[in-house]
């Protein structure tokens, strides 16, 4: 996998994430037959060039997953880099005889790396969100006399000493005593222990990663095609469509007729011609 790692490092998001995303989106998606052939070359012949092509063709999928974790406040570029590591691990372990697409197999490995990164960099911040909670987080352990739960007198004493109310002390004590439970099983877990993870009990046939990625790519491609078709129209036709269909407050045929000094029927004709041009451009 050394060759694949070098390629991913060359395309690392770095500071210019937008340029990276644009670059990986131009890499063609493999057909099922192409993917099977490359996977067999890697599995049976240890063909590193096949591994490189499998990794490169799935980089856009890592970006798609990384964007779903944007709400954690972590840099998108860092999430993508962690996901790329998981992708390479998945490619290395992928067995083409199992009869599944690589994207369905790799999603666990990609998310596992991202989850580990998020837990390392996010939990300690989110456990204390207010000023009072942050103050408690760094001082409560030193104030407690033992490992057990504090008594009411101890809570009152800590609250008085730190200048917060007793309820806040109790809340933070509960947070410090709690532990995180991973949704997915650890990457190195065996089959006997993997079933204990919550993810083993959930199934959603509608959330196929490959279908979601295909739909997202199709929507983005359609929007680009629409904008390009609109730009190709003359200024008057473009303005008519904008006011008739895209603006929040839609204009009537008579409103536009008064604006351009023509009949409402002429506006309707211009609108119809512009729509036909856009349809033809998008189909092309």
From TrEMBL:
<feature type="domain" description="RNA polymerase sigma-70">
    <location>
        <begin position="78"/>
        <end position="91"/>
    </location>
</feature>
<dbReference type="GO" id="GO:0006352">
    <property type="term" value="P:DNA-templated transcription initiation"/>
</dbReference>
<dbReference type="InterPro" id="IPR009042">
    <property type="entry name" value="RNA_pol_sigma70_r1_2"/>
</dbReference>
<dbReference type="InterPro" id="IPR036388">
    <property type="entry name" value="WH-like_DNA-bd_sf"/>
</dbReference>
<keyword id="KW-0731">Sigma factor</keyword>
<dbReference type="GO" id="GO:0009408">
    <property type="term" value="P:response to heat"/>
</dbReference>
<comment type="function">
    <text>Sigma factors are initiation factors that promote the attachment of RNA polymerase to specific initiation sites and are then released. This sigma factor is involved in regulation of expression of heat shock genes.</text>
</comment>
<keyword id="KW-0346">Stress response</keyword>
<dbReference type="InterPro" id="IPR050813">
    <property type="entry name" value="Sigma-70_Factor"/>
</dbReference>
<dbReference type="GO" id="GO:0003677">
    <property type="term" value="F:DNA binding"/>
</dbReference>
<protein>
    <recommendedName>
        <fullName>RNA polymerase sigma factor RpoH</fullName>
    </recommendedName>
</protein>
<dbReference type="InterPro" id="IPR012759">
    <property type="entry name" value="RNA_pol_sigma_RpoH_proteobac"/>
</dbReference>
<keyword id="KW-0805">Transcription regulation</keyword>
<keyword id="KW-0238">DNA-binding</keyword>
<dbReference type="Pfam" id="PF00140">
    <property type="entry name" value="Sigma70_r1_2"/>
</dbReference>
<feature type="DNA-binding region" description="H-T-H motif">
    <location>
        <begin position="253"/>
        <end position="272"/>
    </location>
</feature>
<dbReference type="GO" id="GO:0005737">
    <property type="term" value="C:cytoplasm"/>
</dbReference>
<dbReference type="InterPro" id="IPR000943">
    <property type="entry name" value="RNA_pol_sigma70"/>
</dbReference>
<dbReference type="InterPro" id="IPR014284">
    <property type="entry name" value="RNA_pol_sigma-70_dom"/>
</dbReference>
<comment type="similarity">
    <text>Belongs to the sigma-70 factor family. RpoH subfamily.</text>
</comment>
<feature type="domain" description="RNA polymerase sigma-70">
    <location>
        <begin position="252"/>
        <end position="278"/>
    </location>
</feature>
<feature type="region of interest" description="Sigma-70 factor domain-2">
    <location>
        <begin position="54"/>
        <end position="123"/>
    </location>
</feature>
<dbReference type="Pfam" id="PF04545">
    <property type="entry name" value="Sigma70_r4"/>
</dbReference>
<feature type="short sequence motif" description="Interaction with polymerase core subunit RpoC">
    <location>
        <begin position="78"/>
        <end position="81"/>
    </location>
</feature>
<dbReference type="InterPro" id="IPR013325">
    <property type="entry name" value="RNA_pol_sigma_r2"/>
</dbReference>
<dbReference type="Pfam" id="PF04542">
    <property type="entry name" value="Sigma70_r2"/>
</dbReference>
<dbReference type="GO" id="GO:0016987">
    <property type="term" value="F:sigma factor activity"/>
</dbReference>
<dbReference type="InterPro" id="IPR013324">
    <property type="entry name" value="RNA_pol_sigma_r3/r4-like"/>
</dbReference>
<keyword id="KW-0963">Cytoplasm</keyword>
<comment type="subunit">
    <text>Interacts with the RNA polymerase core enzyme.</text>
</comment>
<keyword id="KW-0804">Transcription</keyword>
<dbReference type="InterPro" id="IPR007630">
    <property type="entry name" value="RNA_pol_sigma70_r4"/>
</dbReference>
<dbReference type="InterPro" id="IPR007627">
    <property type="entry name" value="RNA_pol_sigma70_r2"/>
</dbReference>
């Amino acid at each position: 996998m050394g060759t694949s790692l070098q390629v991913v490092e060359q395309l690392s998001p770095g500071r210019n994430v937008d340029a990276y995303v644009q670059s990986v989106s131009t890499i063609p998606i493999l057909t099922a037959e192409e993917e099977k052939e490359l996977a067999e070359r890697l599995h049976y012949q240890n063909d590193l060039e096949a591994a490189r092509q499998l990794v490169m063709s799935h980089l856009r999928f890592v970006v798609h997953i990384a964007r779903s974790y944007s709400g954690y406040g972590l840099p998108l570029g860092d999430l993508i880099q962690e996901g790329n590591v998981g992708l390479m691990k998945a490619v290395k372990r992928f067995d083409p005889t199992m009869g599944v697409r690589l994207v369905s197999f790799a999603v666990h490995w990609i998310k596992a790396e991202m989850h580990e990164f998020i837990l390392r960099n996010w939990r300690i911040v989110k456990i204390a969100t207010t000023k009072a909670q942050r103050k408690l987080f760094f001082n409560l352990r030193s104030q407690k006399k033992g490992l057990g739960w504090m008594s009411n007198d101890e809570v009152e004493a800590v609250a008085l000493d730190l200048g917060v109310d007793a309820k806040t002390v109790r809340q933070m004590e509960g947070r410090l005593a709690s532990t995180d439970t991973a949704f997915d099983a650890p990457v190195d877990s065996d089959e006997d222990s993997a079933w204990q993870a919550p993810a083993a009990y959930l199934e959603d046939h509608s959330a196929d990663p490959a279908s979601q990625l295909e739909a997202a790519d199709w929507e983005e491609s359609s929007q680009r095609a629409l904008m390009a078709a609109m730009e190709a129209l003359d200024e008057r036709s473009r303005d008519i469509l904008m006011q008739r269909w895209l603006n929040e407050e839609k204009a009537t045929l008579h409103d536009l007729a008064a604006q351009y000094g023509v009949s409402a029927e002429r506006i309707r004709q211009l609108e119809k011609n512009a729509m036909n041009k856009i349809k033809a451009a998008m189909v092309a």
